[in-house]
Amino acid sequence: MGQQPAVRAAVMSDVARLAGVSHQTVSRVLNNHPSVRPETRERVLRAVHQLNYRPNALARGLAGRRSRVIGVVSFDTILYGPAATLLGIERAARAAGYGINIVTLERLDRAGMKSAIDALTEQSVAGVVIIAPMMTAALAVHGLPTGVPAVVVESGGGTGELPSVSVDQVAGARLAVEHLLSLGHETVWHVAGPRDWLEARDRVDGWRLALEQAGRRVPAVVPGDWSPRAGYEIGQSLVDRPDVTAVFCANDHQALGLLRALHQRGVRVPEDVSVVGFDDIPEAEYLSPPLTTVRQDFDEVGRRCVAALLALLGAAGPTGPEPAQVEPVLVVRDSSGARRS
Q: Where is the HTH lacI-type domain positioned along the sequence (predicted)?
């Protein structure tokens, strides 16, 4: 006889779904909270019995008081943006008297997102913050278990019913382009980030919008990724074009590679080509030359994100579904200058 496949143990969200209630209501029933109506209590207990649900002992021990832990679902924390966002959330949570519990996913798809939310719910987190920088992640946010207080970070406002916090990427790209145009450059080339990243898409939109509103020629987008290698390889080809006098890179690591390629080919920055990045990584001011870039205030993103989550938990005033956008800041250094004669 063949071995029977293992059956996944039921979790609290399964009980909530079957009973048609939130996971908080299930928790109240299991802990004999007096505020639950008798018919709701009976429906939940019936679902518990039907699913053979066994509550986690730690979760039950915490249920009598509000959890002081915020769950965070993240992706690829090696990259500067997601890593800095996570650090900003952790600092803001600590300042508000909360700890964080992190689940890092290899892929932010719907199945992975649901699994992460279920795991955090079982650990009785007060609420969940989702760092969703990719289009697939924004789509995966839809259909999350009901009753889970959640805020989305870096979503570009595309998550609909959930409150979100993000840096205004379009405004940041416009700052970079308008700065270069003000220095006398006829147009600005753009080395883009990965197409499936919301931030990369918004930076392309801001770059194009700034050029169109200034009545300038819009060059073809130069596709890339977030790596210095991409900037380096693209720089090797752009250097042979005499019409390239200003380049806006989608992030600082691209700009680092681009600067190296230009230096190797004897192209002076900013005398021959001006370069502007995005992020303001800690190394930006120590590059040669120091990099002009667009700074993202990740600590402010974290503060607003935690504030929005506390509002959902009733620890602050109400919050609406509109995205709260943090304004970026242009940091002018030595890599950008007047157009050559």
A: 10-64
Strands in the chain per DSSP E:
69-75, 99-105, 127-131, 150-153, 164-167, 189-191, 246-249, 274-276, 293-295, 324-326, 329-331
Cα separation, 287 vs 100, whole angstroms: 34
Strands 293-295 and 274-276: unpaired
SS3 74: strand
What does the pLDDT look like over 193-240, one tens digit per residue? 999 899 999 999 999 999 999 999 999 999 999 999 999 999 999 999
**DSSP conformation letters of 101-155:** EEEEESS--HHHHHHHHHHHHHTT-SEEEEE--BHHHHHHHTTPPTT--EEEES-
Comparison of pLDDT for 166 and 106, the residue scoring more: 166
Residues 6+ apart with CB under 8 A from 240: none
Q: What number of residues does the chain have?
A: 341
CB distance 298 to 131 below 8 Å: no
CA–CA separation, 257 and 259 (whole Å):
5
Amino acid, single-letter form, for residue 307:
A
- Report the pLDDT value the prediction gives residue 222, as an integer from 0 to 100: 97
Q: Is 20 helix (H, G, I), strand (E, B) or coil?
A: coil
Q: What are phi and psi of 45, to 5 degrees?
A: -65, -35
Q: Any idea which residue has 């399964």 for tokens?
A: 14
Task: For residue 304, report the phi and psi dihedrals to the nearest 5 degrees.
Answer: -65, -35
